[in-house]
Each structure stands twice: as C-alpha cells, then as structure tokens.
Specification:
Layout: H1 7-12, H2 23-28, H3 30-35, H4 38-43, E1 63-64, H5 76-81, H6 94-97, E2 108-113, E3 119-122, H7 123-127, E4 133-140, E5 145-155, H8 156-163, E6 171-176, E7 196-200, H9 201-205, E8 210-215, E9 218-219, E10 229-231, E11 244-250, H10 257-261, E12 285-288, E13 295-296, H11 304-307
Parallel strand pairs: 1-4, 2-11, 5-12
Antiparallel strand pairs: 2-3, 4-5, 5-8, 6-7, 6-11, 8-9, 8-10, 12-13
The protein binds ligand MTE.
Ligand MTE binds at residues 83-87, 141, 176, 195, 224-225, 237-238, 240-243.
C-alpha cells in the first residue's frame, strides 16, 4: 500500500482506527465500532460480485476544456488503483479490487427538493444531457496527496438550470447509493451510511464544478465513483462524492459525512488551504502521487483566481 512515509502523516491518515476515537461512532454502538478494525474488515466476505460489462467503454464526442491544467497527468493506473471509497473497502487498493460489486445499470439520479422541476433521470439520459468535456484537474486529498486527473463530465450548473431551483434553495445535498450488496463496505458501521455531501448554491453553480461520468476517455471505473460523481477541484477530495443517486436542493446547510463525523477535523467548506493545518498534520505541502519530493500546496488548490471571490469577507480559518 502506498502510504505517507512520515510517522506524523501515517498516524494522521484517515484509517479505520480513527473511528474508535470518534464520539459519534461510539454512540452508534460500541460493539459495532469494535468491528471497524482491519481484522473485521478483512473478515467481511469480499467474494462475489459481477464484473461490470461497461468497464472500459469509450465515451465519444468529448470536447477539450479551457479550464484544464497542462500539468503532467497521473497514469490511468495511479488514478484507478489508489482510491478512497469506503463503500468498497478502507485501504487504497480495496476499491479497485472490489469494483466488481458496484454494478451501475440500472441507475437513476433523482433531482428533488426546492426545485420547480423535480425529476428522476435515468443515468444514460443524464450523460446525454449536456455535451461532455474533458477537464484535466488537480485533485488534492485531505490526506496530503494529490493527482492530476483527466475527468470527463459536464458542468453541474447545466443540471441545476434544468431543475429551476426555488428561492429557498440555498444549498445542495448529494447522496451516494445505499445498497450493501453493491457496496459491501456499508455492512460495517464505520460511518453513517449513505455517504452524503453538500455545497452552497454558488459553489454548485460555479463553472469549475462538474459531474463526472468518465476519465481518460472511458466510462468512469467503479472505484472512481461510477456511474456519476461530483468533482470540485478547489476543495479537498472528500467533497467529491461518488456514485450519486440523489441531488436535493435545500434551504439549510446539509450534513456532510466527514464533517458530521469529525467536525473539529473536517469542515463543511473544506477548501484546500495551506494556511489551515489539519489538527494532526500539515496542509502546507503535499505528495503528488508518482513524485518523490513534496510540493507546496496552493491555496484553493491553485484555482484561487476563479473561486476566491466566492469566499470574500469570510474568515477561512473559522470556515475551514
Ligand atoms: N464518496 C463516497 N461515496 N465514499 C467515499 O469514501 N471518498 C472521498 C471522495 N468521495 C469517498 C467519496 C475521498 S476521501 C476522496 S480523496 C475522493 O473521493 C477520492 O476520489 P478518487 O478515488 O477518484 O481519487
């Protein structure tokens, strides 16, 4: 497993052990929390699942985007074999190994809540909704590693416009599939399932925010959040929720999985910010997967020119 070399980071990286320390998890059930050890995870029966027939399918008619970085892209192998996706296992290589569980057809995404035009979209209709673009984005994980990924997707704003939000829609909540058969990690009480995330309306409408349905010219591999996931490149990776089934427009700030579980460590905003350290490790530097030396982390992950104005007047040390 590829892990950070320094002890500081190693102990800091999100691991199942941390769930022991989490008050909320303790409250869920002490015995259930005890299950969340590496031993119990490997004790889950991970045999079974069906290989996804769609894996590797090419996506055509993709236009390049001017929002793309020209930086060297991580390899397809890096991007698809070093993942965080707890529904498919807690180690970085687990999601690729267990990808066969997550079959993605049939699949629907319901757009609901404070909108004039609620609708349940079949995933294949959703993919055709808006022309697909290739967006090569820097992605920075809260665990202080990063990658450059050529996503295929479309602006979230195009779906939002179709939904016609009401004046009460101030935030959007995103919800991952809840199905322990297709997501066996959900059989363990390591977090409250399903995984949920949220954005403020202006963040959701920002042209950099996309719904991704592919990468490297192909349909999204299961381990990267098939069939559709959010990508918000100026925020830590955990905001980019995978395998979405619900997009709900709401008035109040919705719960977000990591923030709900450990609010002192993971804020709702979670903008990449080298000036605000995680309580247990520095966010000033990062390790680009595939590189030896650490690099400096850029504020808003280098997208400040485009997004800083969304937060003008806000104390980003308080709203981390
Ligand atoms: N979405 C769901 N449903 N479950 C998860 O465990 N992990 C998050 C995010 N989205 C996660 C998720 C975290 S911590 C990161 S860093 C990114 O997915 C990783 O995306 P990648 O594996 O495509 O690089």
């Amino acid at each position: 497993m590829l892990i950070q070399k320094s002890n500081d980071i190693k102990s800091a990286v999100i691991t199942p052990k941390e769930f022991y320390l989490n008050r909320r998890q303790f409250m869920l059930s002490a015995s259930a929390a005890a299950l969340a050890t590496g031993a119990a995870l490997s004790g889950l029966d991970w045999t079974g699942g069906t290989p996804e027939v769609l894996a590797g399918e090419k996506l055509g008619n993709v236009k390049k985007s001017s929002f793309s970085t020209a930086e060297k892209q991580n390899s397809f192998k890096d991007i698809t074999s070093y993942n965080n996706f707890y529904e498919l296992g807690t180690d970085k290589e687990d999601p690729a190994t267990n990808a066969r569980y997550l079959t993605t057809r049939p699949w629907t995404v319901s757009v609901e809540g404070e909108v004039r035009k609620p609708k349940t979209y079949d995933i294949d209709a959703l993919v055709k909704l808006s022309p697909l673009e290739e967006r090569v984005y820097r992605m920075r994980c809260v665990e202080a590693w990063s990658m450059v990924i050529p996503w295929l997707g479309f602006p979230l704003s195009s779906l939002i416009k179709l939904a016609e939000p009401t004046g009460n829609a101030k935030f959007i909540q995103f919800v991952t599939l809840l199905d322990p058969k297709r997501m066996p990690g959900q059989k363990l009480p390591i977090m409250e399932w399903p995984y949920v995330e949220g954005l403020r309306m202006d963040e959701a409408m920002h042209p950099l925010t996309i719904l991704s349905v592919g990468l490297y010219g192909e349909i999204l591999p299961a381990q990267n959040g098939a069939p559709i996931r959010l990508v918000v490149p100026w925020k830590y990776g955990f905001k980019s929720i995978k395998s979405i089934v619900k997009i709900r427009f709401v008035e109040k700030q919705p719960p977000a999985s990591w923030n709900r579980m450990q609010p002192q460590e993971y804020g709702f905003y979670s903008n990449v910010n080298p000036e605000v350290d995680h309580p247990r490790w520095t966010q000033a530097t990062e390790r680009r997967i595939g590189e030896f030396l650490r690099r400096k982390t850029l504020k808003f992950n280098g997208y400040g020119d485009q997004v800083a104005q969304l937060y003008s007047g806000m104390d980003l040390k308080k709203f981390y």
